[in-house]
Amino acid sequence: MSAATPAAPYTMSTEHKRVFIGLMLGMLVASISQTIVGPALPRIVSELGGMSHYSWVATAAMLVSAVTVPVVGKFSDLYGRRTFYLGGIVVFMVGTVICGLSGTFWMLVAGRAVQGLGMGTLMPLSQTIIGDIIPPRQRGKYQGLMGAVFGVTSVAGPLAGGVITDHLGWRWLFFVSLPVGLLALVFIAKFLHIPHVPRRAPIDYPGIATLVLGLTSLLLAVSFGGSSWAWRSSESLGLFALAAVSLVAFIAIERRAVEPVLPLRLFANRTVSLSLVAAFGIAIVMFGAIIYIPVYAQGVIGVNATNSGLILMPLMLGFIICGILTGLLITKTGRYLPFMLTGIAIMALGTFLLTRLDHTATSTQLTLSMTVLGIGLGMAMQQFTLVVQNAVAQSDMGVATSSTQFFRNVGSTVGIAIYGAVMANGLTERIGSHLPAGASAGRTEGMDAGSVLDPSALSGLPPQVVEAVRWGLAQQLHDAFALGLPILAVVFLVTMFIPNLPLRESNHDESPAADPEGEVLDAPGSPEAVDSTPVREGLTATQRR
C-alpha cells in the first residue's frame, strides 16, 4: 500500500469476534484452574500425603509449560495454529480430570504436568492468534482485554475456591472449569479457520532435545536451590553445569539447523532482543511481588489467611484497568514507548513504596503500594508482546510470541527464587536481633519463613517475641523488595533503546516493520527461510477468495 493511499478503517469481523471470545475462554480456563486451586493445595496435599514433596505440585506444571512454549510456537508457524490450540485445550482438560480424580500425591503431580503441557500451548497461542487476526495498530486494546483475564482470575479464583472447597469439596475445584473449557473448544473448533500453507521443513530434533534438557536443568536448579538443597550443593552445581553445557550445545545446533526450533536471527533484531530482556526483568519483579506481598500482609500486618484471595486485589485492579486503558490509548495514538516507559517508572515507584514498609506499616500503606505497582504493570507488561509481534514477519509470529512468553516464564521462576532466597536467608538471625534482653533465643530456633505465617506456631509465644518475628520478617522482605529497583532501572534503560517502529495497519504484509537502526528479520522466501510459499494467516476463507 502506498503512502498516499489511506488504510481502510479496521473492523473486526463477526467470525473473528467469535474467535476472540473462544481465546478469552481458553485463557480463562487455564488461568482460573491455577488460581482457584492455589489456596486449597495445602489441604489437598495433606489429604493425599506427600507434604515433603509439596513443591512438586507447582514445579511439575511450571517445568512442562516452560519447555512446551517455544516448541509449540515453532510448530504452529510450520503447521498452523488451529490443531495445536484445540489439542492444548483437550490436553489441559485431561490433566484437570486427572487432578480431580487423584487418589495419590504423585497422581496429582502427573495431572499437574499434563496441565502444564496444555498451558504451554494455550498461553502463547492465544496471543499469537490475536496477532494473526488483528493488525498491530488495533491489537493493543484486545491484548489489554486478554491481560485482564489473568487479573480477574487472580482475584476471583481464590475467592471462588474457598466457597467451592467448603461446600462441594476440593475435587470440584478442578471439575468446575471443565464446562468453560468445553465452551472454548466449541468456539475455536467452529470459528477458527485461519488459512495456512504448511511449511515443509525437517524437524529440529537435536535442537528440541538440547533445549528441553537445558531448560529443565536450569529451572530445577533455580526452583529448588536454596530450599531443597543449598545453592553450592552438588545438586545445584551439577544442574547449573548441565544447563550450561546443554544450552551451549543448543546454540551450536541452532546455528546449523535448516529450520531451527528457536531461530537465532530473532535475537539479531534489536527490537526483539531488547523486548525479551525487558519482559524477563518485569516478570522477575511482578512475580516476586505477587508471591511475597501476601507473605508481608499475613506475617507482618496480620491479615487473616482465610482472606488471602483479597490481599492482591488492589494490585490486580490497577493492572486490569490500566492494562485496558493503555491498550485503547495505543490503538488510538499508534504510540507505545511513552506508555511503556511511564509504566516502568510507576512500577519503580510502587516498588520503592514497598521498600518503605516496616513492621509498623498499615493495610492502607500496603494497599497504596500495591495499587501503584499494579498501575505500572498494566501500562507496561502486555505491550512487549505487541512490540515483538510488530517487528517480525508473519511466518515468525508463533516463535516470536512464544519467545516472549518463555522469557516471562523463566523470569517468574527466577523472581520467585531470588526473592525467596533473600527473604529466608538470615531470617532467624534478624528475628533474634529484635528479641528483648533476657528473652530466650531458643524460642525462635528452627523458625523459618513458613512457620512465621502459621498462627499455631506463634500463638504460644509471648507478645514481645511475636513482635520480634514481625520486625525481622519485615526487614527481610524489605531487602527482597529492594531487589526490584535495580532490575527496573535496567528494564527502563533497555526499553529506552527499543526502536519506536510504526505499528502496521494490516496483517496482509508479510514483511516486518522496518527498523532504521537494527536488522530486519528475514521474511519468508529469503535465503534464511525454508518455505517458498507465503503464509497468509489472518485472512478468512472469504477474504482469500
Describe the structure in your own words:
This protein has 545 residues and is an all-alpha fold. 69% of the residues lie in helices and 0% in strands. The chain is built from 22 helices and no strands. The protein has helices at residues 14-35, 41-48, 56-79, 82-100, 105-133, 136-167, 172-175, 178-191, 205-224, 234-256, 270-301, 308-311, 313-333, 337-355, 363-380, 383-390, 397-424, 427-433, 455-459, 463-482, 484-496, 541-544. α3 (56-79) runs antiparallel to α17 and α13 packs parallel to α15 (363-380). The radius of gyration is 24 Å and the shape is globular.
Keywords:
mainly alpha; 22 helices; globular; disordered C terminus
- The overall strand count is 0
Task: Round the Cα radius of gyration to an integer and report it.
Answer: 24 Å
Helix fraction by DSSP (H/I, runs of at least 4)? 55-70%
> Beta-strand level of the residues, as a percent range?
under 5%
Shape: globular
SSE ordering: HHHHHHHHHHHHHHHHHHHHHH
Can you summarize this structure?
This protein is 69% helix and 0% strand. The protein is mostly helical.
Fold topology:
Blueprint: H1 14-35, H2 41-48, H3 56-79, H4 82-100, H5 105-133, H6 136-167, H7 172-175, H8 178-191, H9 205-224, H10 234-256, H11 270-301, H12 308-311, H13 313-333, H14 337-355, H15 363-380, H16 383-390, H17 397-424, H18 427-433, H19 455-459, H20 463-482, H21 484-496, H22 541-544
Helix pairs in contact: 1-5, 1-6, 1-8, 3-5, 3-9, 3-17, 4-5, 4-8, 5-17, 6-13, 6-16, 9-10, 9-17, 11-15, 11-16, 11-17, 11-20, 11-21, 13-15, 14-15, 14-20, 14-21, 16-17, 17-20, 18-20
